[in-house]
Amino acid sequence: MAFGGGTSGNRNRAYGSPMSRRGLLQTGALCLVGLVSPLAGCGGQTPERGGGQKSAVREPQALGGSGAEGEKVEVRVDGGAAPGVLDAAEGATVAVVMVGGMAGGIEGPSGIYPKLAERFRDNGITALRLDYREPGDLSSCTDDLLAAVGALGRGGAKKVVLIGWSFGGAVSIRAGVASELVVGVATVASATQGTEDIGKLSPEKCLLLIHGSRDTSVVPSLARYLYRKAGEPKELVFYEGDGHDIEIHTEVMLERVMNSIRNGL
Known about the structure:
Elements: H1 21-36, E1 45-47, E2 53-55, E3 71-77, E4 80-87, E5 94-99, H2 113-122, E6 126-130, H3 138-154, E7 159-165, H4 167-178, E8 182-188, E9 206-212, H5 220-229, E10 234-239, H6 250-262
Parallel strand pairs: 5-6, 5-7, 7-8, 8-9, 9-10
Antiparallel strand pairs: 1-2, 3-4, 4-6
Helix pairs in contact: 3-4
């Protein structure tokens, strides 16, 4: 995707011929406007065919509603872009964003994210599997997720649910607290770093915590900690014998998440 930039189509004309005092004043005024607002000014326009001018600044990004299946997209964030895959249900007003662990990725625990995306779309829910610009950076990854939520909102989503695995659980909790569009958060083996405000999800936003009883990467006691810190409505589900990826109860977990979101979490 291209971003704003470009130069004024009239700039080079100033060097070829004398300029009147009035012309100098007009040029100075334009440059002052450019300093006041990033949407206007000497360097913020590109020439249009026929000699006209148009702004190079892009409209706010919108995602969803197109009916696209497995579409590779980029979510614009602070001059960069977070990659993702969009399965957009046509006319959907509910969307789900799924994020991965410390290393990023779009597959999720035991590779359930592509399967979830397909089922969501079949049920009229737009699904976005989002990767990070800077995996492992909690603040940056949270910004990525919030930018994705905003883009889905501009694309027609009225409600957004976040799903995060491991490190992505903490990212989802943080973004869920910060965004008014988010109505629910579901986590799998969630980390706890940066989740101090988890109680602020309550009471408007639902919370589902899923964890394996034999997780050695993020120990089960951390799920109990998050549950105690969170307000209602909330639910904690343990899968006996499972590790960090929920390898044994994969299909059961997939159905649990799907049904929770479909039924309003």
